[in-house]
Amino acid sequence: MAWNDNINKESPAYKLITSNAPIIRSIAGPGSGKSFAIKKRIMRLLEEGIDPTKILAITFTRTAAADLKKEISSIGVHGCEKVEARTIHSHAMLILLRSELKTIKRRQPRIVLEHEIDPALRDIEYPIDSKIEERRKLLKLYEAAWANIQVEEPGLPRDEIEEEFQDKIVNWFIYHQGMMIGEVIPIALNYLKNNPASPEIGKYSAILIDEYQDLNKAEQVFINLLRGGANIVIVGDDDQSIYGFRYAYPEGIRQISNLYGEYSDINFDVIRRCPKRVTRMASALISKNPNRTHNELIPFEKNQEGQIEILQWNNYEDEINGIVNIVKQETEQNNITSGDILILVPRRLIGYKIENKLILQGIPAKSYFREDIIRNDSVRRAYSLIYLLANPDDKISLRFLLGFGSNDFRMNQYKILKNYSDDKSKTIRIVLDEILNEKISIKGISNIIKEYRKILMDLIQIKKKLADDPLHVFELFFQSDEGEDFYEIISIFQEIVNNKPFVIDNYDDFDAWLKDIVSELTYTIAMPDTPETTNNIRIMSLHASKGLSAKFVIMASMIDDLMPFIPKDTNDVQKIIEEQRRLFYVAMTRCRSSKHDYQGRLIISSFVWIYGIDAVKMGIPISEIRNNKKVSATRFISDFGRTAPKTVLGSTLIT
Prior knowledge:
six-stranded parallel sheet; globular
């Protein structure tokens, strides 16, 4: 099949595929066919003789990169499997690994997870007598300065306190040989800036970047610098920018000329994915945001209208039971399979509750709440133990484990141990082993020694369990009431092990296999990915649904206290509301129509009453925990105007 088979020459897809403009910006609405166009453009480039190793496709998630790589490899053009498709972070990490960064900057590309930074905030002891929360705020300022490239490095110190803090935290990372995920791009960016003759600059003839609106300013500048003289296609949609907490910079795609100068614009306005009514509702909703790039969205004429219901229940429990009953009715009537149902919720507690009730009804369901996988102390210790087993010389996991169980992470004892190790030019682990072997003795660190003995015993137990039954290794760590906290990490670990079983032909030995498995686990935790299609009902957050679609989408618990959710310390409330509106927009446009059978169904659900204890667990303010809390449907329903059906009682749908 040639690249131009069955393509309308008047369509934006054809224009994107065939354009030879050096810089193209494409604003593409949800489900408007841009992925198809990107694949076909790559196909055309290959057919015209472009070296496949000179084509780079950058996507936001690893799943999207893997899917694109798979699709490109299947097009049948010679060399297609050599096209490079990866995430921006993996590409930056590759540059750092190839560079002399370790020598130049003494930085190691070992990703530090959020909980592993807790000991650092104690160890640096700065500002003096400050609370940990104050140090966390200083850390956030450091990360924000990196993301916004306010200065070259390491951040934007506004005063001596910030400058001193940043020096100390960077020195801690250097000593313990790691970096935060938010540092990867800026460090790679500065490496390229300081090395303009680097072979990484201008390496490619053609670059295609998707989901540009989700990149922060540093990432956008990184792409521009990496480009050299390559032709570049920048695809995105500022209406779908939902990662403000990662410092996403939607203004970048709106003001593309600031980086690139003159460019060609090719826009995708026809929404081919969604039922017509969903498209009209989504267009009305997002039109309430100012400073947008898109015009009105256009429904695809061949799609069906869709079945849309806006429901309200008396209380939270009624909503959960009602949603389960609706799903049961729909699946029992053979209208749809479980794999075609997507349930989106604003809190994981809601998702877990729906999942459990569906499973009790014999309906296959699986939740994916991977934005905050390591939130329980036992999960954190389990992860760090497995990481240390895979990487015995790792200083960061060892530091966390030595301080585990102590509010101050045994910082005073650790200081004694570290000073001794530095004086003797030995690693901390070597010194600890010498103490256990009674070769040396250090006063004042008895609790750390006790903890280290426990660590070694646990490592032996874990290694044995991994050899005998790797899928259930995490069961060693949790008590009977902690299973829910381990659910996500167990699920991810099992997926990785099933995809990469220990086969002697693929790995030199067990240790090499384990290191690969743990590396994949770390990256998945640091950069949560889009869940793959399964035969189960998928339950997840609205953020996690980006990149997915389903015939039947249920947006549950859409109450105004949770959607939009406005944190107490928010300075710019309007900005938060606009991003939350975009999140709502992204979620509802996951609904997929079909030309002939299932027309596509969307339910937006809310309730009026919630128990006080449930409200507190979800972060909803309440005066008395003993009281019920009265709530209302999300304000975003009003944004639909006349495009939406009237809200009805959920009970009217139960037969």
